[in-house]
Amino acid sequence: MLESADQGPDAQSARPSRPVAHTVEQLARLTGAQIVASPGARETRVTGVVLNSRETQPGDLYAALPGAHVHGATFAADAAASGALAILTDAAGAELVAQAGVELPVLVSADPRAWTGRVAAEIYNSHPGDASAQKLFAVTGTNGKTTTTYFVNSILRALGHSTGLIGTIEILAGDTPIPSKLTTPEAPHVHSLLSLMRERGIDAAAMEVSSHALEFHRVDGVHYDVAGFTNLTQDHLDLHGSMEAYFEVKAQLFTAERTERAVVLLTEGDTWGEAMARRARENLGAEHVTSVALRGNIGDDAHAGPDRSGADWTLDSLTRRGIGHAFTLQHRDGRKLSVSTALPGDFNVANAALAVLMVLDSGVELDTLQKTLDDHDPLTTDVPGRMQLIGTRPTSVVDFAHNPDAMARALQSVEPTEDGGRTIIVFGATGRRDKTKRPIMGRIAAEGADIVIITDDDPHDEDPAPIREQVAQGARAAQEHGARAAEVHVIAPREVAIHTAVRLSRPEDSIIVAGRGHETFQDLNGVAHPLDDRVELTAALDALHSSRKEQS
Ligand SMILES: CC(=O)N[C@H]1[C@@H](OP(=O)(O)OP(=O)(O)OC[C@H]2O[C@@H](n3ccc(=O)[nH]c3=O)[C@H](O)[C@@H]2O)O[C@H](CO)[C@@H](O)[C@@H]1O[C@H](C)C(=O)N[C@@H](C)C(=O)N[C@H](CCC(=O)O)C(=O)O
Ligand SMILES: Nc1ncnc2c1ncn2[C@@H]1O[C@H](COP(=O)(O)OP(=O)(O)OP(=O)(O)O)[C@@H](O)[C@H]1O
After folding, report:
1. I want to staple 458 with a disulfide (CB 3.0 to 4.6 A). Which of 9, 385, 432, 523 is the partner?
2. Residue 1 CA: which ligand 1 atom is closest?
3. How far apart are CA 53 and CA 72, in angstroms?
4. Which CATH superfamily is domain 19-123 in?
5. Is 144 annotated as a binding residue?
6. Which CATH number fits domain 388-551: 3.60.110.10, 3.30.10.20, 2.60.60.30, 3.90.190.20?
């Protein structure tokens, strides 16, 4: 994801029109913070919250948070100059504010980040506690969040709801999509967006909740009706350090403070699902948790058969429908739901099952839900850059898979069905982030594809050549151990890699360009380089098809 590019108006410029003004005194009572201010200043009323000085609007409370690089209080004077009327910070921040001679009232808290969301919830009145509150759905997990939120929304729309969305691809809080900079926006944005949606008559919203969001308190003060868990596989170890720590962060979502109910996918080979279901039952009570058992690797035309794992719902039958699947979900008590999705990939069976059961658990009658699934086919919906079919002969797909598990599953999904068909993958690893996954991704590509083309993803401020080499080492080592790949190429820039893949292809092959999905800019050392895998792949295929025509 590219954070450095200016993507135009962002979530913060979209605020509700009727914030609830709070005095500094009231906020001190809410947060338990100490007030450093002249007596009269306690009555200062703030009408907004911001944690980036550059986004300050007149009347805001500036949450000056300690960061990994810099203390937000360093920018207190900037916030004041833009109209901030008060500051929420910690003791170190209060000192910086005093040293800078900024004369705003200061609320001093031991953990201002943890309070920012709750303060924003109050000021933006995001949880009114009456009938005007929308139904809120959260999806967390390493992979599948975006797809599942799109599925949830599509079902809700088919049920007649007006829906909102907060996630990696876009934010939908009205007619015009707001470009998304983060999977889960900062806490003030989350609350302002939820209120704005309510003002605009949106009565149900689904959002992705990343582990960063939980770690950085971005969804504090939000209460969901249903939270869903997809899976937990290696990613983000640069932030969390270990899978156990990563799990603990995700588990925070399944607490009574944050959600009413939970739906947890149990995937074979991923013991974290079982652990999450157990944790959710401890936190929410067993009657508020629904578990769904799926096989890890769902083969074509397989009959999954009832699972004996004790899960509430199991996958009862599964058949291929076009490039997608049709299947039945069966409850222990005999209830059944017939579901289908035209999106390719066995993981989309999992995402679809999760979405359907999240909507069911929000209080929709089973018969109503079944009729909606039958009449509207809501799980056959476009999810930009997720297993997006760009062309046929060769089957050409752009997918967002950018971690080992997602890549392995994406490769399985594009396995050619014609005799002699080969799989060609184009991908790279991002700079800065979890470096341990680079050789692993190289190995997985070599195990699952016949031709591996390693290129750049977002190098960010790292030199891209060594990143490519670390990925290639994994691929070559796997080749030496007999992996499937006959060819491993290292080609940059990415545009050339994509065109090379198409040039090397035969009609019976499959090409998957993985890692960037819907993204339209590549971050090359802070410079936003326009690049859309879907556009490049389309252009390369057009060129291939016209040269084939010329030859015939
Ligand atoms: C690693 C990470 O997530 N860091 C988050 C953390 O940043 P930090 O501690 O480095 O902040 P800092 O740069 O030291 O700045 C300290 C404070 O000064 C403020 N500041 C800074 C400069 C300025 O001019 N004015 C100003 O007010 C900043 O807003 C910040 O509050 O706190 C900041 C807000 O306080 C977040 O914006 C920032 O997320 C950055 C933007 C980020 O890129 N995060 C990514 C990795 C992320 O969250 N990704 C996940 C999804 C990942 C995935 O699934 O792939 C997501 O939810 O998007
Ligand atoms: N349930 C799943 N299990 C494993 N892989 C999946 C699953 N769903 C999708 N994928 C793969 O992961 C990629 C990302 O999917 P999606 O965007 O839905 O997940 P995400 O959790 O939102 O990812 P991110 O947090 O990185 O944005 C897809 O392009 C696909 O390759």
Report:
1. 523
2. 55
3. 8
4. MurE/MurF, N-terminal domain (3.40.1390.10)
5. yes
6. 3.90.190.20
Pull the structure tokens for residue 307: 């699972």
Ligand 2 pocket check for 349: Cβ under 6 Å = no
pTM of the model: 0.88
> Could you tell me if the CB of 405 is within 6 A of ligand 2?
yes
pLDDT tens per residue across all 552 residues of the chain: 433 333 345 666 789 999 999 999 999 999 999 999 887 899 999 999 999 999 999 999 999 999 999 999 999 999 999 999 999 999 999 999 999 999 999 999 999 999 999 999 999 999 887 777 899 999 999 999 999 999 999 999 999 999 999 999 999 998 889 988 899 999 999 999 999 999 999 999 999 999 999 999 999 999 999 999 999 987 666 676 788 998 999 999 999 999 999 999 998 878 899 999 999 999 999 999 999 998 644 443 343 444 446 899 999 889 988 778 999 999 999 999 999 998 888 889 999 999 999 999 999 999 999 999 999 999 998 899 999 889 989 999 999 999 898 899 999 989 998 899 999 999 999 998 778 999 999 999 999 999 999 999 999 999 999 999 999 999 999 999 999 999 999 999 999 999 999 999 999 999 999 999 999 999 999 999 999 999 999 999 999 999 888 887
Between CA 399 and CA 406, with CA 403 as vertex, the angle to 5 degrees is: 55
The Cα–Cα gap between 501 and 154 comes to 34
Residue that is written with structure tokens 């590219």 in the block: 2
Q: Is 89 annotated as a binding residue?
A: no
Residue 183 annotated as binding site: yes
Domain ranges of the chain: 19-123, 125-376, 388-551
For residues 319 and 328, the answer to whether their CB atoms sit within 8 Å is: no
Token pair 């609830």: residue: 20
- C-beta separation of 321 from 270 below 8 A: no
The Å distance, Cα 406 to ligand 2 centre, comes to: 6
Closest ligand to the CA of 403:
2
Please tell me the distance between residue 365's alpha carbon and the centre of ligand 2 in angstroms: 29
Q: CATH topology of 125-376 equal to that of 388-551?
A: no
Distance (Å, whole) CA 378 – CA 389: 18
CATH homologous superfamily for the domain 125-376: Mur-like, catalytic domain (3.40.1190.10)
CA distance 545 to 390: 13
